[in-house]
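Private note to self, pasted from the team thread so I don't lose it. Backbone tokens:
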């Protein structure tokens, strides 16, 4: 804090209590003033006037309230019209601090404004290489548009699927025989199981290739032929039978019968699955119904623990389905190739 104008100080004079306080000498209470704990004036001394004379309309601030503003009431000067130098000094120091803060604040704002301008300039000017957190993109005027769609003047050829030919006899005209549907002497599976073909047969009388209720159903169903083939693996045997119809509806209806196709022995295999328990399955695809019957090839009954015979029936069932679908696929491929080679295309 900066001290105000110094007042006369008389160290040889004792301290005298201000007027109204106990201990004030008689006749001096109306002439002595107290300023910052020092006695000013006395019987033989008049106080010096300060070097600074306040204007006529000036009133000293009340300590602790700062400079009087428009909304502050005017302070009443202390007795004797003597300014409070300590309060003036405090006010002067507070004003200096406010001016320093304004200067510092203005400087910070100016620096921030300059930084903002520089940052804007950096952003708008761009950089030749994108940073790792940026994504480089072409200007809007350089974005490549997708090419115009082009259409061939040649219309695409027809497409066919296996069922387009397998569903009716009118379209399923490829050569059909037990040897073409089940070719070869071996049946190999991806997981290593290999079966050996022992015998095959084809019957125009479909009922002769079945037993029980399946034989009776085949008699009046419109079946045109029954093809059978037998495969063996280890001690198990399976006969696969395929019944051919004129349309898909007849084949699907007969496949629900799920009775025994007649086992086909021979080629070193005895009469198996005859009047004993065996595994059987049935299904249909297109105008073909297919069946399997499997069990021990020595003619004994299949049991729940005979997993080999059961697997043989499943493998024969899957093989029949795949061979029939392959027949339809070959005809579909040939038809699309012919359509592509036609002069109209």
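Design output:
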């Amino acid at each position: 804090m900066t001290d105000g104008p110094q007042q006369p100080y008389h160290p040889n004079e004792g301290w005298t209590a201000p007027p109204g306080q106990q201990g004030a000498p008689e006749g001096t209470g109306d002439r002595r003033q107290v300023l910052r704990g020092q006695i000013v004036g006395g019987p033989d001394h008049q106080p010096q006037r300060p070097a600074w004379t306040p204007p006529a309309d000036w009133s000293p601030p009340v300590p602790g309230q700062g400079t009087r503003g428009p909304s502050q009431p005017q302070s009443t000067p202390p007795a004797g019209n003597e300014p409070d130098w300590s309060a003036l000094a405090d006010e002067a120091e507070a004003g200096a601090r406010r001016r320093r803060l304004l200067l510092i604040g203005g400087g910070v704002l100016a620096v921030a404004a300059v930084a903002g301008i520089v940052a804007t300039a950096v952003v708008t000017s761009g950089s030749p290489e994108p940073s790792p957190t940026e994504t480089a993109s072409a200007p809007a005027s350089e974005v490549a548009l997708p090419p115009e769609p082009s259409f061939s003047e040649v219309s695409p050829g027809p497409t066919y699927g296996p069922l387009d030919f397998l569903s009716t006899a009118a379209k399923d005209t490829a050569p059909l025989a037990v040897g073409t549907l089940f070719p070869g002497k071996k049946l190999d599976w991806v997981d290593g199981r290999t079966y050996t073909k022992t015998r095959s047969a084809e019957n125009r009388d479909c009922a002769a290739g079945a037993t029980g209720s399946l034989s009776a159903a085949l008699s009046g169903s419109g079946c045109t032929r029954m093809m059978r083939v037998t495969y063996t693996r280890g001690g198990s045997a399976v006969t696969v039978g395929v019944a051919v119809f004129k349309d898909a509806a007849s084949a699907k209806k007969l496949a629900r019968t799920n009775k025994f196709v007649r086992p086909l022995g021979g080629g070193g295999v005895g009469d198996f699955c005859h009047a004993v328990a065996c595994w059987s399955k049935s299904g249909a695809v297109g105008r073909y119904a297919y069946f399997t019957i499997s069990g021990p090839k020595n003619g004994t009954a299949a049991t729940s623990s005979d997993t080999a015979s059961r697997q043989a029936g499943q493998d024969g069932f899957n093989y029949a389905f795949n061979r029939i679908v392959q027949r339809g696929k070959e005809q579909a491929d040939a038809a699309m190739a012919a359509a592509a080679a036609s002069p109209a295309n």
